[in-house]
Amino acid sequence: MNLPIVAYGHPVLRKMCDDITPEYPELKKLIADMWDTMYNSNGVGVAAPQINRAIRLFVIDTVQIVESFDDQDKKDYPNEKGVKQVFINAHKIEESGEPWAYNEGCLSIPKVREDVKRAEKVRLRYVDENFQEQEAEFDGITARVILHEYDHIDGKLFIDHLPPLKKRLIKKKLEDIAGGKIRVDYKMLFAK
């Protein structure tokens, strides 16, 4: 089922999310709904707070990014493979490598894109959809998407990484989003 995406300004986007247990109600259905919501919104990741759940759960699909690489992207990211994965109760162990800028957007902050610097690599401890413990390191585009979604479960947004001047320049757009004065081609849930 395609769920509404929570818009900027909704308090759930600023909550530190809680770990869950395998007994979380209808978890398999929730994960399936998150995949549907992500694909129907043309996203590459979606975190539980974006669908109004303050839990440590997110899904990503960077395979679709790699498959759509143009020739320049293939040169810039020659080792990028992409990952389609569920992350539950993720906790960051470390970030490493040189920070690099990339133009990011967010389903909860539609029509706003800005360059954000993030680390090249991230190591996480998490459980998969079968609650099997995992620890893995990710890099490149996949690390970036993971760090973006991870921010969501820590109550942060990509705009929090912007310099003060950039934040002032997009202030009106953010106010319009929070006030529901924006049109997108997917369902949105506004705070008001």
TrEMBL record:
Keywords: Hydrolase, Iron, Metal-binding, Protein biosynthesis. InterPro entries: Peptide_deformylase, Peptide_deformylase_sf. It catalyses: N-terminal N-formyl-L-methionyl-[peptide] + H2O = N-terminal L-methionyl-[peptide] + formate. The lineage of its organism: Bacteria, Pseudomonadati, Bacteroidota, Chitinophagia, Chitinophagales. Belongs to the polypeptide deformylase family. Removes the formyl group from the N-terminal Met of newly synthesized proteins. Requires at least a dipeptide for an efficient rate of reaction. N-terminal L-methionine is a prerequisite for activity but the enzyme has broad specificity at other positions. NCBIfam families: pept_deformyl, PRK00150.1-3. SUPFAM superfamilies: Peptide deformylase. Its EC number is 3.5.1.88. Fe cation binds at C106, H148, H152. The keyword Aminoacyl-tRNA synthetase does not apply. This is Peptide deformylase. Binds 1 Fe(2+) ion. GO terms for molecular function: metal ion binding; peptide deformylase activity. The gene is def.
